[in-house]
Amino acid sequence: MKKNFCRLGCIPMTATLTLLVSGMAIGQMRTISGTVTQNQQPLGNVTVFQEGTNEVTVSNSSGKYHIQVSGQNPVLIFKHPDYSDRRIEIGKQSTIDISLDNRERQIEEVVLNAGYYKVKEKESTGSIAKVTARDIENQPVTNVLSAVQGRMAGVSITQNSGTPGGGFDVQIRGRNSLRTYSTSSFNANTPLYVIDGIPMSSGNEFRSGLASAILPYSDTNPLNAINPEDIQSIEVLKDADATAIYGSRGANGVVLITTKQGVKGKTQLSFNSSYGLGRIARLPKMMSTEDNLKMRKAAYANDGIQNIPVSAYDLTKWDQNRYTNWQDYFIGNISEQSSNRINVSGGNENTKFSLSGTHDEQTTVFPGDYRYKRNNAGLSLQHQSTDRKFSANFSSYYTTQNNVLPPSDFYRIYTGIAPNAPDLYKADGSINWENNTFTNPMAAASQTYKTDSKQLISNLSLDYKLTSELTVKINSGYTDSKVNEKRLYPKTFYNPSTNIGSERSAIRKGDTGSTSWIIEPQLNYNKQINKHNFNLLVGTTFQEQKASNQVLYASNFPSDELIENIGSAQSITVSSTGSFIYHYQSIYGRFNYQYDKKYILNVTARRDGSSRFGPENRYSNFGAIGAAWIMSNEKFFEPLTSLSFAKLRGSYGTAGSDLIGDYQYLDTYQTGLFPYDGIQSINPVRLFNPNFGWEQTKKLEGALELAFLKNRINFTGAYYRNRSSSQLVGVPLPGTTGFQSIQANLGATVQNSGWEFTLESANIKKDNFSWNTSLLFSAPKNKLVEFPNIEGSTYASTLAIGHSTIIRKLFHYTGLDPVTGVYQFEDVNKDGKLDINDRTIIKDIGMRWEASIVNSIQYKSWKLQFLVQLVNQTQNNSYSYAASLGLMGNLPIQFLDYWTPENPNATFQKPTTYANATLSNAALNFSNSDATVSNALYVRLRNISLQYDIPKEVFKQINMSVFFQGQNVWTWTKFKDLDPEFVLAGYTPPLQVFSLGFNVKF
Description:
- It comes from Epilithonimonas vandammei.
- It is a multi-pass membrane protein.
- This protein is mainly beta.
- The chain has a 22-stranded antiparallel barrel.
- The relative contact order is 0.12.
């Protein structure tokens, strides 16, 4: 019995002694202390922990730390979000002083946010680009997208307008959908934005149209609501392996935003402030009054008009010697912008917190008191139980935005005013109509556009480890957004000679509200068996979004002082109203398998259901498979000592899109504008289509990742090919149906393919000096590969097989006739006339390739970073303005090269007032010819920043730095008179901004 008992429950004496001795060794605790520095300056908030244990501490503001360690060969890990991690074997030392100066990038230490899970960059099978706060902070921008332009291969970011509050065109590996802003109320190529785990609404945004003349497409961007200083990192998911976990939302890529969280340690107060000035950098020199009037007189002569009509006031009524630089007056002003942010953060081993508040203001380059204001308040809480089984994360971000703008962009005004036009205002300050000879643009500018918005984004996630291998998580979120727009029409809009008063004053008011909630339960299972590692993620999504909108038109006010009080109006009309409910459900899963840290397989699947589709196609399946081979872990790579890391990866899968808006598949009706026999009419506007279904994008990618010289040089090269089919567009119908089209899935296929390369190098790495360089190159190609019966469709004039989805079909310009001074074009079909059939030249509009160079240099307390961007593209050029050569207004001096008998080899034809049919037709045809499209290659110093960290001994307990920043600093291009990056005619381009600021931490 005793023998059996000991065999079951006893330990032999020798084993007992061995365990006691080793237990004494394990139990021996000792204290390790030291100082953490960065560039010889104390560095606080560095997390220090012993590898394999729960012992954790944080360095204080003096860089000091103390930690208890145990074991015979303890290892300490030093972590800070802005620097590479350090791993130190302690040995018998009791004091460890280390420096976290900028070192080479350690690829195996970088952790990527993939949305529903995190993955080490070394083990990733997908394509994920990452930009951290160190690249974002202190940039003189109000939207973080401006700060990351050119920093991610395959991600094209273009600012739609330099006017505050405007939107961005973000293309992740090209345009997948045929639906753009020109064909629908929203851009179906917009990526999915996820802020702290909460997807932002897209696809059913209501646009009142009140801002269309001042903000392109009346568009804003979800990230306008977030101060760039509040962002910790941005990850962009690009390929199928990375985006398939988002299923129907991942076709256009996913942008993941992570806001800053609290840091363990002493409670810390920080304050950031900056002030900047902005202007339009590239403005053409305009014609003088003498040159302009000479051109105008020539136009009348060319049209055979000898007696200039009285209505040509610039030639008959106004001072012929007067000159005003209207360009400088309307868009040549200086924009001011300021930003102030305060943050309190801290915590202990179990709980961390962060509380922040920001206030931003920005004026325009227009004359007048136009101003954009933004206020943000953010709260972040993280808690982890002592046994590390339970964790809770809560974040809430509240934003208010107020924007006051003119009704239309002044960029489109100054070219329409003659240089000798009279003063805008009389001596008494009233608007000058110059005896009814002047259509004063400031009268129209009195139609002020105002918008106020409020947005709340809240997220709560709970994690609990049921076992060491199984974790349950619930992610939930709530968003609330309200936007109020106003367009004022005061009586000052009208010429006083019309005797129109406040009875014609009016206001158009648009109100939009949207609320959304999301709940996502998840299970995560991780199992390690010898060399095999298994990870399984299963989850579901339940989301509901409710939106409502209303546009009112109120008129006939007793006074303009009451114009914003709708209750004072005698007439109120509901222009439009509506409400929408969007439901979204899905189940998703991810299986990840690794063998021997060499071979990785990642399988993702998702089934989505959307209320935006008909009952026959409400659900759809998406998935992807990704694989990676870490070649550098193979034994036959060991002799290659200079090779630190090598990985070959690839992926294939599908993603989808439901960015079509709500109720598009249903029979839809709207009330008529006019009643019939006293009864309100109802008109059908859309036909029912039960087969209306999902767009689908199939993504393929192959990539190679290499690192050399202990990760001092890192290279990534990738090729991708995405094909999008079942395009959600309006399919034309015969006129006998009473409808022009029906919403359906068109059998057209769009392909996006290309190469992406990234090279990162730690050029110099010393204690007091470091220099890092990043090179990025992208060569995207977009083309339409299939479109059934395109020649017989309404898309025949805007699309062509084998070309990109953004094209222009143009006449072939053959030159200027030196004898007649008239533009000449090729008559392709030789029928003796120039019409649509002769527009056979197809020009693809857009980027051919893009390259960026980012340099980060640090010398002691000085930090310098600058980004140079090189873009080769085809764009519309300024020659399209030649159509107005001869009309009242003004043009850049390049248009002075027009035909005269003394200048027969001119660039432009002789001016016309459009009274001459031959000249006017030629001028219009010239605007639609290949002469107006050209290469727009440019080199731009996108941004530059210089920061100085004031030595710690100067302010003792205060960390302080000052900085200088520049955005759109310098541009070289042969592209005349326009910003080569920005080609939206009539809108202010992005500004050149310089700012000064400081950061203080207590």
